[in-house]
Design a protein that fits this description.
- A hairpin with a 2-residue loop joins β1 and β2.
- Strands 1-2 form a two-stranded antiparallel ribbon. It has a two-stranded antiparallel sheet with strand order 3-4.
- It contains four helices and four strands.
- The protein is elongated, with a radius of gyration of 23 Å.
- It has two domains: 30 residues, no CATH class; 73 residues.
- By secondary structure, the protein is an alpha+beta fold.
Length: 121
């Protein structure tokens, strides 16, 4: 497959290669002298958002047991960003958001009982 680009009146061609399943079209276009930025596809953005939704759920769940002062806010941020980016796993993102908030509620409740910043069984 050939990629033809036009830069300031001249025409350059660059071969597109596939190595290990990775399309090198953007790299070939960059070396050919184009000035267009490489943009992430919609599919890549949704996959990243799906990963954030799953990570928020796992961190929120783990935060109920340990390190809720750190994992709760991280789960909240990841779930919010995943929802903002339009994840396909909206339910998991909402669960991560809810668990992150629950982490902070549990932390505050145990802080009230123990009068400390941490809690133990």
């Amino acid at each position: 497959m050939e990629l033809t680009t036009r830069t300031t009146g001249t025409t350059r061609t660059a071969d597109t290669t596939r190595t290990l399943g990775i399309d090198r079209t953007a790299e070939a276009a960059r070396t050919a002298g184009t000035t267009e930025p490489v943009r992430a596809t919609r599919r890549t953005v949704v996959q990243d958002a799906d990963g954030m939704a799953v990570a928020a759920f796992i961190l929120g769940l783990l935060g109920l047991l340990v390190l809720n002062v750190f994992l709760g806010p991280i789960a909240i941020v990841l779930a919010s960003v995943a929802l903002w980016r339009g994840t396909a796993r909206r339910g998991r993102a909402f669960l991560g958001l809810g668990l992150g908030i629950a982490d902070l509620v549990v932390l505050i409740a145990f802080m009230q009982f123990d009068s400390t910043v941490s809690w133990s069984f």
